[in-house]
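Input record (Table S2, row 267):
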Amino acid sequence: VYCRGKVIEWDDEWNPLRAVESHVDITKLKETEEAEKKYSEELESKNKELEQFAYVASHDLQEPIRTIASFSELLEQKYKGKLDKEADQYLKFIISSTNRMKSLVNGLLDYSSLGRNKEFTKVDCSLLLKSIQEDMKVSITDTAAEINVGQLPIITGHEIELRLLFQNLISNALKFKKEGIPPKIQIIAEQRTDDIKFSVIDNGIGIEQQYQERIFAIFQRLHSKKEYEGTGIGLAHCQKILELHGGKIWVDSKPNEGSTFNFTLPN
Ligand code: ADP
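Output record (adenosine-5'-diphosphate complex):
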């Protein structure tokens, strides 16, 4: 019961004589609140269970995959050209599929490991971007890309995850470039009332409106691996990193005109 009251009459010694009161039955409200709390606790525990499952599964799958990969490579080294042409072809398929399985499982393991370390520190985004560009020097030079970084703030977060976030967005901007046109990438930040908004802008192939949400789901890709290499994990990583930091990510894009990946981090 929710009660409120107000004394309206006192005696000469200021002892209360009369009061007006209201009593509201809030049983239903409390029941709903409790049901909601229970539901969100259950949901959280199911999510944790799923994440733990993905972690254990991908971790335990690594060993047998490694064994298949190394024995099929040995088989190729020893018997290539000694069996018939078809056998050589089969071995090639086994090796390339095993390598792909290896990168998918590694990606899943990385994905489920995100957030295990919850230590947040101060991160100077300008320094972080400088060091990322150093690390990516080869692909930046190979694609003749031009990268412009605006003034970036110092934020609080998990440095390794924030590095992964920027790295994924930049490497996608380098990868999904228009044929014959060097990538131009701009990275800017805007201080807003409640958050900081970052944008990674490219002049690449762009993304059709209908796929702009789907690309953030794990293993979702819009191209075959022949057209563009990849596993479809990068943006799922970015989304999870932002969830762990209390932010969000989305894309604005038009096919053939480039994409702008925006994300926010709380102030
Ligand atoms: P991957 O790069 O391994 O394919 P991601 O999860 O990083 O996986 O990206 C998912 C898909 O989103 C990509 O396959 C691509 O189709 C699309 N995409 C991501 N970044 C860009 C970009 N900058 N320009 C155009 N398409 C992009």
